[in-house]
Amino acid sequence: MDGDNLAHRAYHSTPKTVVGSSGAPINALVGFVNIMVNVWVKEQPRGVYVAWDTLGVETYRHALWPAYQSGRVFEPEIVQQLKLLPRLCTSFKFGVGKRAGSEADDFMAAAAIEEIKRGGTCLLLTTDRDAYQLVSERVTVLSARRGARELDRIGPREVVERLGVGPAQVPDFKALAGDSSDKIPGARGIGPKTAAALLAKHATLEGVLGGWGRHGEDELMLKFREVVRLRPDIPVELPPSGAPDWKGGAKAVRRLGAKTLADRLGAM
What we know:
Elements: H1 3-13, H2 27-43, E1 49-51, H3 60-64, H4 76-91, E2 95-97, H5 104-117, E3 122-125, E4 139-144, E5 151-154, H6 156-163, H7 170-177, H8 192-202, H9 205-212, H10 218-228, H11 246-256, H12 259-266
Parallel strand pairs: 1-2, 3-4
Antiparallel strand pairs: 4-5
C-alpha cells in the first residue's frame, strides 16, 4: 500500500467533522483504516505492507531535479495525521517502510521484488502511475476510480491501454511526456501520444534520443528518467503471513477516539 497516497484519498473523502478524543480531525485515519479493511476483506492477502514518504526531507530526486514536486502545500490537519499513521499501522502488525531520502514508491518496489523472490504475487494499492513500471504477470496495481466503488485491476495489458507503452517503458515514457503532478516538464512539444508513438518505433529512450536529432535535450531526458525510475535498493521487512492484528488495531483507534471503527475492528 502507498500509505501517503491512500491517506490523502481518505482525507479528502471522509468529512473533517470526524474528530477524535482531543477534538482534532481524525478523518484521514478513519478513512485510511476503513479502506484498508475493505480491501483486505475482498482480496485476503497473506500480509500487508505499507510504504511511506518522509515529509519535508529531500530525496535523490530533488538533487537530480530541484523542481521535483515543488509547490505542494498540505493542510496542517493532514500533516498531523500523516505523522500518526505509520505507528497506527504497526498496531495492526503491518509491515511498514519509511526512511529519510526514500519515497513510498521505492519501498513498494522493494517489497514487491522481495515478495516475488519468495514466489508470491503482489497487489499494489495506489493511484500513482509511477507504480505501473512494476506491473507484471505477478504484480497488479489496484487503483481507485472516481465515482466507482470497485477498484481497477491494472496488469500489463491495462498499462498498454492507458499509456500506450509496456511497464518496462514507463520511465522512458514519463521522461518524454513529463508529469505535471511531479513538476517534470518532459521534452519540448512531446505529449503522451507522441511519446508512446516514439517508443513504439524506437523501443527505448536511448533509441528515441538517437533518432530525433535534438541532442541538446539528451542529458535532460536521461535525468528525467532517473527521477521517475523507482529505486528498490533499500532494505524491507515483509510481514509474516496471517490476518492483521485486528484487536491491536481496535485498541489503537479507540485511543484516538474512533469508537465506531474500533467496534468494527473488534468484531473481525
